[in-house]
UniProtKB/TrEMBL annotation:
Gene Ontology CC: ATP-binding cassette (ABC) transporter complex; periplasmic space
Keyword Signal (UniProt): yes
Single annotated GO MF: peptide transmembrane transporter activity
Record-linked InterPro entries: Peptide/Ni-bd, SBP_5, SBP_5_dom
Keywords, in A-Z order: Signal
Record protein name field: Peptide/nickel transport system substrate-binding protein
One Pfam entry name: SBP_bac_5
Source taxon at top rank: Bacteria
GO biological process: peptide transport
Signal sequence, renumbered to the chain: 1-26
Length: 558
C-alpha cells in the first residue's frame, strides 16, 4: 500500500505470525483519552492534508491516507482493533474473523444483523459480493490485486457492469458469504480488512465517479466533496455503536481541507491557535521540520511517531537500465545519509538494506552492497568502468513536494559523481501513484514507499516484484522496477502454497536476497511516520497497520 510520502501498502500473514510481527513494534506518541476523562461528544475535527486522496472508492483506494479516511465511511468484513498493545483481527461487518475450510481455499463469513446504510437500508451479503466484483471492472482500477489473484475465475471476469456475476463468490440469504480461492490463503481474513471488501449497494453505485459518492455504512457519510479543495463528513444517523466493534461516533463533523504546503500545515498545528487546536494531519510531518518537531518537549502529548511495517525505496527500471553493472553502481553510489536527511533524518527511520523491514514475517538481516550508508564511491566508479564508462541520462520520478525534491537532489548529486546525469520529473502528489503505476509513464528511477497490507512478506514482495502482474495490471502496476525475474517468480509461486509459516518466511527471505542481487531497487529507510494534532484533539490511536493516526475513536475536547 502506498502512503504518499508515507507509503504504499501491503502485508500478509497468519494470526500467529501477526502477533509475532506486531509484538515487535511499540507505538510512540500519546494515545486516546489520557488525562481527559471520557471522550467528549460533538464539535468538528479539521483534517489538514497537502493533497486530495487518490481515491475513496473502497475498491480503488490503495493509499494509507485514503484507507484511513475510508474507515470512517465504510465497514469491511474484518478489521483491526488497535486499542490494545498489538492489533487484533476482529469481525467488522462479519460476526467473526471467518472460517477456512478445504485447506484454506474456501472462506465463509456470517454477517451481523442490523448494520445500516445512511438511508436506513440493511447491509447484506449480496452488497458485499457486488462490491468485491467491482474490483474486476476496468473502470475501477488502482486497488490491491488480491481478489484478481485469488478468487476462482478472477482472471477472466470483467466486473458486474455487463450484468455478469463471479461464481466463486456465493451468498446464502442476507447474512452468509463464501469465497472460493484458487490456492490456499491462510491469511485471507486479513485481506478482508482492506477497504475493497466493503459493501456497495448496486442502486447507489455511480461507477468511476463513486469516489465522491461513497455510500456509507460507517459512522460518517459524505456531506459534500469538492475535489482538491474540501471533503466534509457528517454523522450517519443510521449507524449504531451496538453493531460496530471498532469505531466510535464522537465528533459531529470531519472537515478535510486539501492543498496547503506540508510545512505550512506543520507550523499551523504546532502554533495551536484557533481551529488548529482541533486539527490533525494525515500526511507525515515535512522532512525539513521533522528533526526539530520530534525533539520539541512541548509537543510530546500531541506528537505521534508511528512505526510503519514498510520501506522507503528507489526503484531502478530494469527494462530501461539494462546493464546489471550500472544498476549495481547505482546501489553503491547512493548516499543514504543525504537521502534520509531530505525525509527528516534519524526520526524518519533506520537505514534500510533489505526490502522487508524488521517486524515483518520473512525479514532476514543482510546487506548486499555498501556497509557504509554514505555509499562506496570507489566501488561504484569501478563498476561503471567495467560497464564501459557509459554517461547515461536518467529520469527520476518524485512527488512535487519540497521533501521529495530535496530527496531527488540528493540522488542527482550522488549519481552525477559516477557520470550519470539525472533529470528530475516532479509529479503532482495527489496523482503520483496513479501516474507512476501506469505502464505508459515509465521512468529510469522512481521513488516509492510501501507498507505491508498486513504484517507479512506476502503483501510486500509478490505485489512489488511479480513481473507477471505488469501485463495484468497496466494501469495499476506496483512493480516500479519492471523486474520479471523467473527466479523471483518461482519463489513467489512456491511461497504462495506454503501453509507452514516458518517455511514460507524462509522462502520470502531468499526472494528478498534475489531481488537485491538483481539490483532492482535501492532500499533507503525502514520508515516511521510522524504526525501531530492540536491540543484539543483526543482519542487518536497510532495505527501500526496503516502507519496513520487512526481516527476511529477521535474526539474534540471542549
Amino acid at each position: 500500500m502506498t502512503r504518499s510520502t508515507r507509503r504504499s501498502r501491503t502485508v500478509a500473514l497468519t494470526a500467529s505470525a501477526v502477533v509475532i510481527a506486531l509484538g515487535a513494534t511499540a507505538c510512540g506518541g500519546s494515545s486516546s483519552t489520557t488525562g481527559s476523562g471520557a471522550p467528549g461528544k460533538g464539535g468538528t475535527l479539521t483534517i489538514l492534508d497537502k493533497a486530495d486522496f487518490d481515491h475513496l472508492d473502497p475498491q480503488r483506494v490503495y493509499t494509507t491516507e485514503g484507507s484511513s479516511m475510508d474507515e470512517e465511511i465504510v465497514r469491511t468484513l474484518t478489521g483491526w482493533d488497535e486499542t490494545g498493545s498489538t492489533p487484533k483481527l476482529v469481525g467488522d461487518l462479519a460476526t467473526g474473523t471467518g472460517t477456512p475450510s478445504k485447506g484454506a481455499t474456501v472462506w465463509t463469513f456470517h454477517l451481523r444483523h442490523g448494520v445500516k446504510y445512511q438511508d436506513g437500508a440493511e447491509v447484506t451479503a449480496p452488497d458485499i459480493k457486488y462490491g468485491v466484483e467491482r474490483f474486476f471492472s476496468s473502470d475501477i482500477n488502482g486497488g490491491p490485486p488480491y481478489a484478481g489473484q485469488w478468487l476462482v475465475g478472477g482472471s477472466d471476469y470483467k466486473g458486474p457492469y455487463q450484468g455478469k456475476e463471479l461464481g466463486s463468490i456465493q451468498t446464502s440469504g442476507k447474512y452468509t458469504i463464501v469465497f472460493h480461492l484458487n490456492q490456499p490463503v491462510a491469511d485471507f481474513n486479513e485481506t478482508t480488512a482492506m477497504p475493497g471488501w466493503a459493501a456497495v449497494p448496486k442502486a447507489h453505485d455511480t461507477g468511476s465517479t463513486y469516489d465522491t459518492h461513497v455510500w456509507s455504512d460507517g459512522p460518517y457519510m459524505i456531506k459534500s466533496y469538492t475535489k482538491n479543495k474540501e471533503l466534509v463528513l457528517t454523522r450517519n444517523k443510521n449507524w449504531s455503536q451496538a453493531t460496530d466493534p471498532i469505531r466510535q461516533q464522537n465528533v459531529d463533523e470531519m472537515d478535510v481541507r486539501f492543498g496547503q504546503d506540508e510545512s505550512a500545515i506543520d507550523q499551523q498545528i504546532k502554533a495551536d491557535a484557533g481551529t488548529a487546536q482541533t486539527s490533525i494531519q494525515q500526511w507525515p510531518i515535512a522532512g525539513s521540520d521533522l528533526a526539530q518537531l520530534a525533539g520539541d518537549p512541548s509537543l510530546k502529548s500531541r506528537y505521534y511517531k508511528i512505526p510503519a511495517p514498510g520501506i522507503n525505496y528507489l526503484a531502478i527500471n530494469t527494462t530501461r537500465v539494462k546493464d546489471l553493472k550500472v544498476r549495481q553502481a547505482i546501489e553503491y553510489a547512493i548516499d543514504k545519509t543525504t537521502v534520509r536527511g531530505a525525509f527528516g533524518g534519524s526520526a524518519y527511520g533506520d537505514y534500510a538494506t533489505t526490502m522487508l523491514s524488521p517486524g515483518i514475517g520473512g525479514y532476514q538481516k543482510f546487506n548486499q552492497y555498501s556497509a557504509n550508508p554514505a555509499g562506496n564511491l570507489a566501488k561504484a566508479k569501478a563498476l561503471m568502468k567495467q560497464a564501459g564508462n557509459p554517461k547515461p541520462a536518467m529520469s527520476i520520478a518524485v512527488e512535487n513536494t519540497p521533501t521529495q525534491e530535496h530527496f531527488a537532489d540528493a540522488v542527482k548529486t550522488a549519481l552525477e559523481r559516477i557520470g550519470i546525469h539525472v533529470n528530475i520529473s516532479p509529479i503532482d502528489a495527489a496523482n503520483y501513484f496513479s501516474t507512476v503505476n501506469n505502464v505508459k509513464n515509465q521512468y529510469d528511477l522512481t521513488w516509492g514507499d510501501w507498507i505491508a497490507d498486513w504484517p507479512n512478506a506476502s503483501t510486500v514482495l509478490p505485489t512489488l516484484f511479480d513481473g507477471r502482474l505488469i501485463k495484468k495490471n497496466p494501469q495499476a502496476n506496483q512493480d516500479l522496477s519492471y523486474l520479471n525475474d523467473p527466479k523471483v517468480n518461482a519463489l513467489i509461486d512456491k511461497a504462495a502454497t506454503m501453509i507452514d509459516v516458518k517455511q514460507r518466511n524462509a522462502a520470502y527471505g531468499r526472494m528478498d536476497q534475489q531481488i537485491l542481487k538483481d539490483a532492482a531497487v535501492v532500499p533507503l529507510t525502514y520508515m516511521n511516520f510522524s504526525d501531530m494534532s492540536g491540543s484539543k484533539v483526543g482519542g487518536v490511536i497510532p495505527d501500526t497497520i496503516l502507519a496513520e493516526p487512526s481516527l476511529v475513536h477521535v474526539y474534540v475536547k471542549h
